[in-house]
From TrEMBL:
InterPro entries: GH29D-like_dom, Peptidase_M14. This is M14 family metallopeptidase. Residues 27-51 are annotated as: Disordered. It comes from the Bacteria. Belongs to the peptidase M14 family. Residues 40-51 have a biased composition (Basic and acidic residues). Transmembrane segments: none annotated. Residues 1-29 form the signal peptide. Pfam families: CHB_HEX_C_1, Peptidase_M14. Its cofactor is Zn(2+). It comes from Micromonospora reichwaldensis.
Amino acid sequence: MRGRQPRIVFFAMSALVATTFVATAPAGADPAKPTATGSEEAHHADHESNHVRIKLTGSDMLDKVVAAGYDVDHGLTRVPDGIEGEAHVDAGQVAELKAMGVRILGENERFTWSDVADGGFRAAGARAAQPLAQPAQVTEANAATVRVVRADWFTTKGQGFLYVEARTTEGRQTNPIVLMQLENDSGVGTPFGSARTMSRFVDSGQYMFHRNLFKLDARPDQIKVTSSTGGVTTGKVSNWLEGAPPPLTDNPGYRSDFIDGYKHPQQLFSRAEEIARQYPDIAEIVYLPHKTNGYQRKSQATIGGTGQAAVVVSSAAWGHEGGNDVTVEFVERPGAGLPLGVDVSGKAVRVLLAKDANGALASTAAQVAAALETQSQGLIDRAHPYRSNAGTGLVVPTSAPVALSDFLDQKRVGAPEGEVPRGEATIPVLRIGKHRDGRNPGVLIQAQDHAREWVPATTTLETAERLVHNYKTDQETKKIVQDTDIFLVLSNNPDGANYSFYNYASQRKNLTNHCEDANADPDRRNSWGVDLNRNYRVGSGHDGYAGGSTVCTSGTYQGPEKLSEPESKNIVWLVEKYSNIKFMMSVHSNGGQLFWQPGAYIADGRVTTPRPPLGDEAFYWQSAGRILSQVKAYRETVVTPENVGGSSDVLYSSAGNVREDMYHTYGIYSFGWEVGGSIYNPATGNWQGGSFQPAWEGNPALVSGHSETMEYANGIMEMFRIAAEWGKDKKKPTSELVPGGGRYTGSVDVRFETSEPATIYYTTDGSRPTLQSPRYQATEFREPGQVFRVTGTTTFRWFSVDASGNVEKGYDPEKNGRNYRSATVTIVK
C-alpha cells in the first residue's frame, strides 16, 4: 500500500473568507522610472503603482479583470455581494476598470461584520421546513434544513471572537433570499440572545454558506441558528488554536532570530551553500537541473512614438552580451527614387529610408521593421510595428542614433548594493537531515514562487538556521533532523525576485517573455513573465479551470503550456527523484491563509478539482491547528478559521497551482501558506492587513517583516515535527459505527467515527470491503461525515486507514482476509 491513503474527519470544517491586503513597497524602495532612449512615450509600466480599493461583483468579474492584465491576485476579501480587494493601477487604468464595471471604493469603504441585532430577519417572514424524503433501505439521511458547520472561539490581543459558519439546504433560494439568524449564549446555562443576521456567501453563482465573525466579551457555550424558511438548530462552541504545546523557541537555550533583513536571491543561495559547507554531517546542496531564464533581457527601443510610424526593435544578443551596445538610426538621404536599405558598422545600424520619385520619404514602419530583421547582419532579432498597429505610417528620420537597452542597468531607490549576475541561473536546494538516503519522510518547503513576496524567503531561511544551530543542543530539533529529510527551496523565482529587488518592486512572475509583438515593446516589460503557480498540470487553466490567464501580460498568465517553465519543471523533477517527499508547503504572502485542495474550479457550475477524502481533510485540519498554534505563540497572530481549508473555498480558484499537482499526482500532503495576514489592533478595534514587503522593523505587535518571519518560522518548524511523527506512526486506527449494531424499531440514523484522522472503506451488500469499495464521505464540503438512514436490516463491513497508511486491525484489503470490522443493524418493523 502507498504511504498516503484517504482518511476521514469527525469535526466541523472551516470557512471561506480570505482577508488579504496588497502590498506597498517599503520606505525608500519605490521603483525607479527607467528612461528608454528612443521612446517618445513615458514607460507607463514603470509608473509607481497606485493601490486603489476596488469592488468586484464576483468571481466572473475577477477572472475578466485579471485576464485583462490587472494585478489583483492578492488583497482579496470575499464579501456577501462580491469581492473586495486592491489593484495596482495608474490613473488611466482606473478609468478602464470603471468601464469594466469595477467599483472604486473610498478610503473608508470596507466590508465589516455587522454588530446590529436582527438586521431585518423577521421582516422576511418564515415558512415551514420541507419534510424529509422517504429513504430506501440504506440511504444518506436527508440533512436538517439548517446545519452548523462550525462555531469557533478564539482570543487575540485581549479580545475574544466568535466565528460561525452555517448552511441551509435552501440557501440557493433567491426570491426571497433565505436569511439566517445567529444567537449565542454567554456561557453554560445562560439564555440565547444578541441576535444577528448572518451574511450569505455565493461564489461563481453557487451558494456556499452563511457566516459571521464578531467580537464578544465572554466565551459562549452554544449558538442557535434560525433560518427564515423555518429551520432551527443549535451547536456547541469549540476553541480555535488553544491548548497547543509551547513552541520550540521556549526551550531553554534554543536559538532563533537569525535573519537581520530581507535577502535577495544571491544572498539566500550563498547562505544555503555556506550552511552545507559548515554542517556537512546534516546538510548538502541539491542543484536543480533546469536553468532559469536568468536576470537578463534582450535590448530594445521603441522608435517613432506609438502611432502607425513607430517601430519596436529588439537585439539578437542579451543586453549584457552586446545588445546594450547596439544603436539604430533612421537616416534621410538627399535625392529621389532611393530604395530602402540598411547599413551596419560595428554595432551601429543605420536604416537608409526610401524616397519616392518626388524625393519624399516613402518607408512605412512595417517595411523598416522587415528590413531590420533581414539586413541588420544578425544584430536585430526582432522588429515590428508598435503593438497592434499595422505599421502603415511613414517613418521619419531620428535626430540621433537610438541606443538599445535591456533596462536592467537601472537601480531602484533603496535596492541593495551589488550587481546581479547575468545569464541562466541554477537554483540550489538546501537539504537538511541526518539520514538523507530516503528512509525518512521528506518535507519540501518552496518559497517565493511570486517574486515580490519577500517574507516567505526569509521565513524559510530562518527555519534552516534554527535547524542547524540547534541540532546539537536541543533534543526536539535533533529529533526533527534525525527523523525527517528536509528540502528548502529558498527562492523558486530568483530572476523575478531580483527584478523585484532591483527594478520593479511589484514584480510577480518570472522573467520568461512569451509575449508576441502586440505586447513585446519595452513599455510592457514589467508585465512579462509566467505566474509559476499557474503553470502546473492538475486543474490547469489549459483544461478550463478558472484563475489562470491566457493573456501574457496578466498577473496570472499560465504560460503557453503546462510545465512550460524551468522553475515548475524543477519541482516536478525534485519530487520524482526524491520519492520520500511526503509533505510540501508552498509559502506565499500576504493574507494569512493556510490551505490545501481543492485549489481550482471550472467557473460554470463551480466544479472543483477532486476534494480530498474526508480522512485527508481531517489530517490537514489537525496539522493546520498545530501549525497555526505555533504562529500564534509568537505574538498572538491568529490565522482565523475562515482562512483555513481548500484554497478555492477560502481564497479563489487558482488553476494549475503546485499544491494540486503534488497532491493528486504524487500523493504528497501539500499545503499553501499565505503568510503575513491581518492582525487585530486593540488600539483601533480593527484588523490590520499586511503587505508583500512590510518594513522589516516596525511595531512588533503589528505588521513587520521581522515579526512575520519569526512567527511563521515557528509554524514551519511545527510542520517538520508533524512529518517526523507521521514517519514514526505505527499505531493502527480504530473506528466505530455509531450508535452501532443492534435492534432498532422503525429506522435508525448511523455514522462512522474514528480514533484519529482516517479513511473508511465500507460495504452494505455483504461483500468484503476493499480499496475499491465506497469511501465514507463528508455530508457536504467542509462538514463532518455522512449520516445513513437505515430502514431495513443491514450489515456494515468496513476498515479504516490512517494518515500514515496504518490499516485497522492489520487488515489487508488486497487479500482475502476477514479481520475487517462488521456490525449488523437489525430493524424491527
